[in-house]
Amino acid sequence: MSSKPRAAGPPGEPRRVAYLYLLPAFAIYAVFLLYPIGRAVQISLYDWDGLTLGTWAGLDNYVAIVADEGLRAAFGHALVLIVFYALGPLVIGLALAAILHHAKVRGLGFFRTVVFLPQVIAMVVVAVAWRRVYAPDGSLNGLLSALGLDGLTRGWLGDYTFALPAVGVVGTWFETGLVTVLLLAGMSRIPPELYEAARLDGCGAVREFFAVTLPSVRGEMAVALTLTVIAALRTFDLVYVTTRGGPGTSTTVPSYEVYHRAFGLGQVGSAAAVGVTLTVVIFAISFGINRFADRRVS
Amino acid sequence: MTAQPRASRTLPLFAAITAITAALAGCAPGSSAPPASPSAQPSASAVRTDAAALGDVTLTVWDQEVRGGQAAQMEQLNKAFQEKYPNIKLNRVSRSFDDLNTTLRLALSGNEPPDVVEANNGRSSMGAFVKAGQLRPLDAFAEAYGWKERYPESVLRYSRYSADGKLFGEGNLYGLPQVGEVVGVFYNRAKLTELGIQLPKTWSDLETALATAKAEGEVPLQFGNLDKWPAVHVFGTVQSRVVPAEQISTLAFGRKGATWNTPENSQAAEQLVSWAEKGYFADGFNGQGYDAAWQAFGKGQGVFLIAGTWLLADLQKALGDDLGFMLPPGSTADAPPVATGGTGLPFAITAKSPNPDAAAAYINFITSADAMKVLADTGNLPVADTADQSVPDGPQKDVFTAFGTASAENGLVPYLDYATPTFADTLGAALQDLLAGKATPQEFLGTLEEDYKTFAESNG
Question: Name one GO cellular component term (chain B) (predicted).
Answer without folding.
Answer: cell envelope
